[in-house]
Amino acid sequence: MKVYRLRLVKLLLLGFILANLIFFYYxxxxxxxxxISRALSGTDDDPQSQSQPQPKADGAxxxxxxPKDKARNANKHIRKSITIVFYGHYxxxxxxRPSIESILDVIPNMPILVLQxxxxxxxxxxxxxxxxxxxxxxxxxxxxxxxxxxxxxREQLNPLAxxxxxxxxxxxxSVRLSSKNLLQKILREINTKSxxxxxxxxxxxxxxxxxxxxxxxxxxxxxxxxxSFSSCAKLKLDxxxxxxxxxxxxxxxxxxxxxxxxxxxxxxxxxxxMPEPFTLPFPEMLYMQAKIxxxxxxxFPQSFLEGRRLFASFHTKQRRMELRRRQFxxxxxxxxxxxxxxxxxxxxxxxxxREGNWQPHSPVLDAQFSSSNFSLPLVTxxxxxxxxxxxxxxxxxxxxxxxFYYYLGKHTPPCCLDxxxxxxxxxxxxxENVGIRYxxxxxxxxxxxxxxxxxxxxxxxxxxxxxxxxxxxxAMKKSQSKPTVDHEGFYWIKAxxxxxxxxxFSKVNQVGVNLLPYxxxxxxxxxxxxxxxxxxxxxxxxxxxxSTVLFLGRSIMCPNNVLEYLEAKHIKVKSxxxxxxxEED
Length: 585
Hints:
Strands 17, 18, 19, 20, 21, 22, 23 and 24 form an 8-stranded mixed beta sheet that branches. Strands 3-2-1-4-12-8-13 form a 7-stranded mixed beta sheet. It has 585 residues and is an alpha+beta fold. It is built from 14 helices and 27 strands. A hairpin with a 7-residue loop joins strand 21 and strand 22 (512-521). The radius of gyration is 38 Å and the shape is elongated.
C-alpha cells in the first residue's frame, strides 16, 4: 500500500514539472518573438514606455468619450464641412426665420448664408434675423445681397467668397431640422465615391481626398413631395439647334433635373467653376450649367422635413407664378433656347410633336411635370420661343449670305424655320389655287433633293415663277404698287433692289419667301428685272417637261434634269440618289 502511494506521488510530481516546463516554453517563446519584432521595427524597448498607455482614437477601446463630447465633435465636423445657403425665396412670403432657428437649435454656430436678389420684387420687404445668443454661441448667419453695388469690390460682390467650407448645402425656404443625423449621412455619402472593379464587377466605396473636387450633386428631397408626380427628368441641351429636351424619368440614380422641392449638396469649388451659379430661376439654371459641365447627380433616399406651407393663398400663388414665368423667359433668352421639347406621361393629353400645330404651354417647369405612372401615354409637347407676328425675326440682318449665328456655330433658330415653312406653304397654296406656273429653285431645291427637308441653315426659300402669270394672284398684283397684307396676315412686298417679290410672315417679322419672276423668250429663260447670281439665263428645255420633288411633305414642281440645272448655277448636290417624277407640261 505504501509503495502504491509513493508511485502516485512521483507521477503527480512529474506531471507538475512537465506542466511548468510547457508553460515556461510558451512564455519564453512569446516574449522572444515580441523582442525580435520590436528590434526589427526599431521601437523603444523601454519598460517605462511600455507601461505608459498609448493614445486611443475616438470611439476606440480605452478612453471612451461621453455622449455630450461625441455630439460636440459631430457638430464641429459638420460646421467645418458644410455651409447652408438659402436662395430662391420670395420675401413677400417666406419662412426663413423659423427655418434658421430650427437649424441652429440642432447645430449651434452652424454657418448659414442667406442670398438676396437685388430686385424689389424679391428683396422687399427686407428680411433680418436676430437670435438671443446663449453661452458659447456666435453670430454665424449672414445676409448677402446679389445686387450690383459700385462701392463694393469684386470679392465683396462674390457670394462664394463668404463660404469657407468645402461643401454648400443649397436649401429651399421652409425647412425643419429635427436632428443632425441626416446632415452626417449626406456628408458621408458625398465624401465617398464608388469605383467599379473590372474583374469582380462590384462597386467599392472610396473616400474622397480633402483636396479633390467632388464633381457630383447630391439631391435631398423633402418629405412633403407628391408621390403621384415624377420628380426626375432627363435633360438634353442641343445648343447649336437652340433646343432643350426634357424626358420624365423614374430613375433616381441619373436625375439631370429634380422638379420637386429638394436641397442640393455640392462642392464649393465646382460652384466656382460655373459662370453664374446663383441665378434665377433656381435651381433650374444651376442644373443647366451642371449638365454642360458634365456633373453627375444622385438622389439621397432620406428626406428633410417640411416647414410652414407657403403660397397657400391665390394672390401669393399667382404673384409667384408670374415671377417664375419671367425668370424662365429670361433663362431661355440667356441660354439662347428657342425650342423646348417635353415628353411626359399624363392622362388625356394630345401630342403636339409638329411645330406647325403646337399650342403654347407655360414656360415654367413645375413639380407637376409628369405623372409617376409610366403606364400612361407618352405625350410630346413642343414650345417655340420668339419669331412671332408681332416680334422681329431672330435671323436679323444677313451679310455675305451668313447670318450672325453662323459665327456662333449655330443653325437657324427652329422658331424661324417653323415660320419659314408656314410662309412657304401659304405661298404654295396661293400659287396652286390661281394656277401660277412655278418651280422650287436654288438652295431650297438642293435641300429638297438631298434630304426632302429644309436645310437647318436656311433663312429664306426661293420660288421662281413665270412672269406672264403674275396677274393671276391678287396679292402679288396689289404688291406691285404698295405692300399689302392678305387675309391671313402675310405681308406681300415688292423688293427695292430688283423687280422681284417677297412674302414675309408679317410686316414686323421679315422671315419670308422670295418670288423670282422669269420670262421665257424662245429657247431661253431669263430673269425679269432682278439681278445677281440668282438671275442666270438657262435653257427652256429644263422646264419642258416639269418634274416634281418631295419637299416638306409635299410634291413640289421643279426643273427636269435637276443636277445639271443646279450645276449650271454653281450649286453642288451631295447626294446622287434622287427621286424626281417627270410630268408633262
